[in-house]
Amino acid sequence: MKKTIQGQAGAPVFDSLAKLGHRFRFIMEMRLYDTLTRETVPLFAADGKRLRMYACGPTVYGPAHIGNFRTFSLLDVLRRTTEVAGLNPLYVRNITDVDDKTIKGSAKDGSTLGEFTKKWTEKFHADCASLNLIVPDVEPRATEHIPEQVAIVEKLLANGNAYVGGDGSVYYRVASFCEYGKLSHFHPEELQTQDTNSAGKANAADEYERDQVADFALWKAQKDEDGAVHWPGPRHPETNLPIEGRPGWHLECSAMSIKYLGESFDLHAGGEDLCFPHHENEIAQSEAATGKPFSRHWMHCVHLLAEGKKMSKSLGNFYTLADLVAQGYDARAVKYLLISSSYRSQLNFTLANLKGAESALKKLDKGIEALLAKAGLSRADFDSPVFDRASADDALKTSFGPALEALFDDMNTAAALGAMWNVLRDEASGNKAALAALKTVLYALGIQPIPSKEDDAGADEAPEEVKALAQKRWEAKQAKDWAAADTLRKQVTELGWTILDRKDGWDLKKA
Ligand code: AMP
Ligand code: ZN
Hints:
This protein is of the alpha+beta class.
């Protein structure tokens, strides 16, 4: 593992310079595959201070499914690992709170766009907390950055990269940007018409309001179905009057990443479906507006599958976190499963895999207990500052070093877990340094340390009354009396316990 230190001028320098004093901080070399160059290259902060990273966040029109959370969990591992590596991340993840789906959803709901998206944003935040995702440094919302978006469109109109189409909307002229396609490696001439909202959806219409089928909407002129959702937009080049309407989906990420990270920044990430057209369009509109390279490095997470197909709302093959928790699964196990394969590999979600993740976590907890016992420490010590997160440097020297190295090497979460299990299986020695290193590995993975004994109380410790209700519910389920089973579950919940369904019975956990 190569260790560098980064001086104030920003250039990586060699180890010996560490002797010069504390204004240098240690940085472990972390490599990551870059979709733009198709190479695995070191990650670094161009300003020598903070790794500026932007992730496309959720569209808040309903509960996010666990496919979305695979991407958000992996990006959380990225954010954590860059921190452990000493890259000092500045993490921005947006909220898409205006688009076709949010507008339609709020109209159906009979609420304003703001009320509707607030409800789903809160739900998203609650799920993120259950999955132990670190809150981003900035979480900007599209509706709160309309002037920034309008300014970009006006620049593009002035530069000749945009035009007003037949329907009064403003479109990006793809032919005006000769590097279009550099991220996805598509050639503009091969492109189907771009759906203005979701990735790559072909449009069978014969006539277009835009000059070229590949051109995409920057600013959508006001329509009746948008109701009250409209703002004064960019000035029309001929009338000089603002075009009333709303931003196209791609525009918000350019405006907000530039505002919080600068015109050029270090890393941009999202799920693989965003590579084209969303990220390609972000590059085109940002670079044409600023004249500078946009994000230097691009990272895309491969999708979570269900029954061999991409988990998605439109296919209906999705689970939400709430679905799984209601079935008695632990959010910690969901998180473990979602990150258990590398971000560059597919993962097929099954309930059997989730059960496997639950037993892995139980084994992990037992492994930690064994290490603590060997070190003569108690379980509570693992959470206490005694084991303050070790520096990556110290952790690398222990038996858990290979787990951390796997994360630094293209964020291979599967290899990191494998390396961690190798140590735990081989009955590692329980010294403080190894425990601190394990804590660092778990921190980077975002796997919560073992719950305290109290939280871990199982069926044995539940009151007789609760056990009797759980047994009755099990019998009601066997008799397919779902209404009775539901009522009994609620009674158990009200008494402060959660029923965990097992194949051949039930278990109980303190709620
Ligand atoms: P959305 O809320 O639809 O904008 O999606 C939020 C994030 O989830 C984006 O980064 C998507 O690429 C990602 N995503 C959507 N479906 C999946 C999936 N099945 N597996 C992993 N990530 C996904
Ligand atoms: Zn985006």
